[in-house]
Specification:
This protein is α/β, with parallel strands linked by helices. It contains 13 helices and nine strands.
């Protein structure tokens, strides 16, 4: 979305980014944009729930009023050419129609995600929208340590069920890696992938990550979890031949 905003700005458009506090953009990296935060009305418990569908539903319900007020304030200062919104934020359609503002929907996921998102309720019911399992997390940690290769590992807070951040790291792991690796909560992914020192990308194969890796010419080790990641990983490994699915790599080792 921000890449599209940069392109539009280069063509003379004035850009205002309306966002919630959740996963808010780095304003300092885009000083030529105006950023306006709005409340999504979620409690800490609601914001941290593992139920992805529930979070999306609540945000689409809670954001209507603050989004309306935000647009009303902007319109008081001048006309708005159009709204460009993520496909997930369908609440913005009724608001844009209320103000008579054209709306363009930007869908940043792959075509394979259409059927997967339709199946979200079933996936949720059957427990197929998981967090990282602690045993898998420890196995990944030892895999990185035993590779003896330098690495940058992004571990989001709350990634592992029952853990706030790095509590699930196996005993002795940090001593094993010494200065060969660094663990962070967030990294500018495309900038990292563009660095000459990066030789590979171990990824869950979300569509954005897959595209950025392709654009920067970085081969992938694919560890998909759910939704379109599974299809993306199959294309990367079996069709395009620019990566390797983890289970096939294990089979190659005779495991």
């Amino acid at each position: 979305m921000l890449q599209l905003a940069n392109i539009l700005h280069s063509r003379g458009f004035s850009i205002t980014v309306i966002h919630t506090h959740f996963n808010s953009p780095a304003e300092s990296k885009h000083p030529h944009f105006t950023f306006i935060p709005i409340s999504d009305g979620l409690s800490p418990a609601e914001a941290s729930t593992e139920d992805v569908v529930s979070r999306l539903t609540l945000r689409n319900s809670n954001c209507v009023a603050p989004f309306w007020d935000c647009l009303a304030g902007l319109l008081a200062d001048g006309p708005i050419t159009c709204l460009i919104t993520d496909a997930f934020w369908h609440f913005s359609q009724s608001v844009s129609e209320g103000f008579g503002i054209p709306r363009i929907v930007l869908r940043t996921s792959s075509i394979s995600s259409f059927l997967a998102y339709d199946a979200f309720p079933v996936l949720r019911e059957k427990g197929y929208l998981p967090k990282q399992d602690e045993n898998d997390f420890k196995e990944m940690a030892w895999g990185l340590a035993n590779s003896m290769q330098p690495f940058l590992w992004v571990v989001r807070p709350g990634l592992v069920r029952g853990s706030e951040w790095l509590e699930s790291l196996p005993s002795g792991f940090l001593e094993k890696i010494e200065d060969k690796g660094r663990i962070v909560k967030w990294a500018p992914q495309q900038e990292v992938l563009a660095h000459f020192a990066v030789g590979g990308f171990w990824t869950h194969n979300g569509w954005n990550s897959t595209l950025e890796s392709i654009c920067e010419g970085v081969p992938m080790i694919c560890s998909p979890c759910f939704v379109d990641q599974l299809v993306n990983a199959k294309y990367v490994s079996d069709v395009w031949g620019i990566g390797w699915r983890e289970e096939r790599w294990r089979e190659g080792l005779g495991e």
